[in-house]
Amino acid sequence: MRESWRALWREPRPDDAPARVWRDWVLVAGFSIAALLEGILAPDVPWRPFAMVLAIGLTPTLLWRRTHPLAMIVVGFGVVTVVQLVAVWFGRQEVGLASMLYFLVLVYAVTRWGSGREVVIGLAVVMAVATTSIVTTPSTLGDVIGGYAVLALAAGSGAILRYRTTANRRQLEQIRSEERVGLARDLHDVVAHHVSAIAVQAQMGRTVGARDPAVALEALASIEDEASRTLAQMRAMVGVLRAGTPAEYAPVGGVAALSSLAQPDGRPAVVVHVDGDASALPATVDQAVFRLAQESLTNARRHAREATRIEIDVTVEPDHARVRVRDDGTADPLWQPGYGIVGMTERAEMLGGTLAAGPAEGGGWLVAAELPLRSGA
Predict the structure, then answer these.
(1) In CATH, which of 3.40.50.1240, 3.30.565.10, 1.10.8.60, 2.40.50.100 is domain 253-377?
(2) Which of 315, 304, 207, 297 is nearest to 260 (CA)?
(3) What pLDDT does residue 157 have?
């Protein structure tokens, strides 16, 4: 309990309090007109001119209720308390107009926009004023209960809206964070794959370019194509990160696009084999299979030493989709998982699947993932 009170006391003001707008002036004008009409038309108003001036004169507190909620509570309720004590001293009835119910807006504002300290102090002031009014003015039990209930309703409404807004904001921030992580993962996958292909083409062009210029020109054309696609997708993703707008880049390929990764005559050769009916795969699993295969291929090209062959095997079963990517190179026994392995593992776990990566028996490197189809749906 003590920790809860400390947390409330230290809570800062909400940072989304709107500035004064035209509706605030309409609110002030509306209550001022209501007080003027009540003062003129209502019968038996104690201290009629003074009550009208009091009701109208305190309406500007509504203009500062968001920026200075506690100060407006103290000014509004404090002035009314002083007036009431003076009226009791002179043996008069309670001074005020029914239109001064706009004070409930101040009670709402202090719990909605005030800091923790302002909320505690402001509600204490309100309770003290309400108690003073009950003591100095003859009231029935129903009036007392009704008065406290109305004050509690105003304060509770502000608190509920405040914490609901905070919860929604935190949820939105979490969603945005998850989206950014996903975009970062896709950015890494896309860039790493294309840059790896560019590096392979450049190496091949440099190796054979001296004796076969035509092959070098083909390699340069491939490099240009890969670089253009990489740049386009990077611009789209960076635009999302900056503006928070939906990305307009090419959709992620699925199992059907795995053939684009195959390079049977490349160095190393890339062979793709798909077993099973991939047409019924859920879209999330279909895209994940492609990304896992793409990133595993990128890692093999970058890190597999002396590799001559990379095999991509995808098996689709009624309940699972399995991805295996293996090379015949030399695995580093001191390897440490980088962003690629971490991103692939997160992608598989998000779909309820598993992923393992490491040196394979018999040499080379193996990435093996299993994705359930039911979770992906």
Answers:
(1) 3.30.565.10
(2) 297
(3) 92
